[in-house]
Amino acid sequence: MIRFTSMFLMIALLLTAQAVAAPAPTQTVEGTVLAPAPWTDDTSCFAGAQRRVSIASQGLVNGVVGYQFDVDPKTWNKKFTLESTGPAPADLDITFYYDAGFDDVGGSPAAFAFTDRKTGGEGGKVPAQTTRAIVCSYAGGQGASAPTLFHYEAKSAK
Length: 158
Hints:
Blueprint: H1 2-19, E1 26-33, H2 47-56, E2 67-70, E3 79-84, E4 92-98, E5 111-114, E6 121-125, E7 130-137, E8 148-155
Antiparallel strand pairs: 1-8, 2-7, 3-6, 3-8, 4-5, 4-7
């Protein structure tokens, strides 16, 4: 009787485990941006500063005037959130880049930026076909703080 009960419990556990769907995986990035990077017209942060610093340092410098990371293609067209997580909330922007021209110092590669003027971060859908992203801190009047800690999360397709 004990063997039958044990076998029954094992089968029930296996069936239950298969019935529960695994949560969708996510791309999570946590980082720090040491200093704000103002754009010349003061409407957003200048992600190009981080891009150029990264090119000049062959990718060794990250987190000074922006934080750069690769975009997981499984997150394209899925929702993302970018949140300021430090003790002093900041107005963060995120720019998603298409690959062509990204590594050209003098170039202006195709990109899609989220630059709402609000303290806390950004949200939206990861633009399809983007390969890299840069988080930077706005240097204007709203929420300018340094250093800035952040948490980025995007759901991926199963």
